[in-house]
Amino acid sequence: MMHIALPGHAPAGRRPRLLLVDDQPVNIQALHRVFATDCQVLMATDGQRALQLCRDRQPDVVLLDVQMPGMDGHELCAELKADPLLRGIAVIFVTAQDHPDDETRGLDAGAADFITKPFNPTVVRARVRTQLTLKAQSDLLRELAFVDGLTGVHNRRHFDERLLAESRRAQRTRAPLAVVLADVDHFKRYNDALGHLAGDDCLRRVAAALRSCLRRPTDLLARYGGEEFVCLLPDTDLAGAIGVAQLMEDTVRALALPHPGVEGCVTISLGVSAGNQGTGLVEAADRAMYLAKAAGRGRVSWVES
Ligand SMILES: Nc1nc2c(ncn2[C@@H]2O[C@H](COP(=O)(O)OP(=O)(O)OP(=O)(O)O)[C@@H](O)[C@H]2O)c(=O)[nH]1
């Protein structure tokens, strides 16, 4: 078999992740042999299990049998394309049918390509490689679109998307989820005293300090707007999140950035909330942050949910 190198630039440097869906294990085995060396291969023999794997493991490409008992390939493809968190997964239908109407139906449902059985391994590899390259490029563009230009941390759009995904996960697993909001104190006075360029530099240094406080790969820091930052901490309860917030307060204070507007140094006020579902967490953290402001700034407050 001619060897075609598969792109290795999937998100976070991981190997491309492929999901094989077919109700006949023998077909899955045949495809598994083609991709086992280059890809992380996930397998499912029914549509429901495949959908769950898409939610839990976010494959880059799905090779999907059209005819399956229960949820068939078209239904699964429609489910994926209707979900904002899953619609980026490229779907390639693998089917015994080669009637143009079937192909049109599949492409209309959002499939990226079509492969007919019995398949030629070299052709399948080439087609999957094309989809993996396109997927890696669109992941890169998404990544760039999700970064804040001033500070280099994620932006609010990315936070909102991750909050939705982590909320679903927290509800499913009953794991706690925490949000920390951090706002630079008297930042208007800082800008007024030193100018906007110095203000921008201050925001960059605060962002770097906040980022240094996050240790887990699943923790997320984003610029929420202006001089406000937000952290999403999966699998973290209120006590854990208060600890992270306190470390952030200490770390920014330790920068000892002079703040002429208050005759002291730059501080942040933080609000913390935690719960089993994302809805209301940001609002609760915002309320807590205003409590920290009202209590004198440069401190952490929290609300139980
Ligand atoms: N330099 C700079 N300033 C910004 C940026 N985004 C927002 N700001 C400024 O941040 C200031 C926020 O002011 P306020 O919302 O009144 O809050 P504050 O002065 O920090 O006061 P407290 O939050 O009550 O401590 C405004 O002057 C904004 O212009 C930015 O990207 N760069």
TrEMBL record:
It comes from the Bacteria. One of its GO terms (molecular function) is diguanylate cyclase activity. It holds the Pfam family GGDEF. Gene3D superfamilies: 3.30.70.270, 3.40.50.2300. The keyword Phosphoprotein applies. Residues 17-132 form the Response regulatory domain. Transmembrane segments: none annotated. Its EC number is 2.7.7.65. Keywords: Nucleotidyltransferase, Phosphoprotein, Transferase. The modification 4-aspartylphosphate is found at D65. Residues 175-305 form the GGDEF domain. It catalyses: 2 GTP = 3',3'-c-di-GMP + 2 diphosphate. It is an enzyme of class 2 (transferase). InterPro entries: CheY-like_superfamily, Diguanylate_Cyclase, GGDEF_dom, Nucleotide_cyclase, Rev_trsase/Diguanyl_cyclase, Sig_transdc_resp-reg_receiver. Coiled coil: none annotated. NCBIfam families: GGDEF. This is diguanylate cyclase.
